[in-house]
Write a structure and sequence with these properties.
about 140 residues, alpha+beta, 4-stranded antiparallel beta sheet, about 15% strand
């Protein structure tokens, strides 16, 4: 007598349902975790740029002329825009007495709601609109 082997339709549907539930629970956590990691990448880069901006000030006695390129040249670091973030360093104040560092998210889930920036100034004050930004103090 010939014995039928294999899975029944019910067994296959149950396995597919279990996989769908696991994906529904796991994928949002995965995507949130990757966004948090990318945000941490930007805040770490801003901290590095801040150190470079203070090196720039130590050499020039002003923040006037400050830019990412100037920080890279003077400090010997290499901060460049990437696929996820663009960085800007700019002096503030009439005499170049301060600076503002900006990282802008170039792509990602928050492009449509306008939450795309992280800011850091010379007093280590963090601001911006990008979610998951809570770098704390230095």
């Amino acid at each position: 007598m010939h014995k039928n082997t294999g899975f029944t339709l019910v067994e296959i549907v149950v396995v597919c349902a279990i996989i769908a539930i696991l994906l529904a629970v796991g994928l949002p956590s995965y995507f949130r975790s990757t966004e948090i990691a990318k945000c941490q990448q930007a805040t770490n880069t801003l901290k590095t740029l801040s150190d470079g901006a203070f090196d720039f000030y130590a050499e020039n006695d002003t923040f006037a002329g400050l830019s990412v390129a100037a920080i890279n040249a003077q400090s010997g670091i290499s901060i460049v825009n990437n696929a996820d973030w663009a960085y800007v360093a700019a002096p503030t104040g009439a005499m170049g007495t301060g600076f503002l560092l900006t990282s802008t998210r170039l792509r990602g889930p928050h492009q449509t709601d306008g939450n795309t920036t992280i800011l850091l100034d010379q007093d280590y004050v963090w601001a911006g609109t990008y979610p998951y930004t809570d770098p704390g103090n230095f």
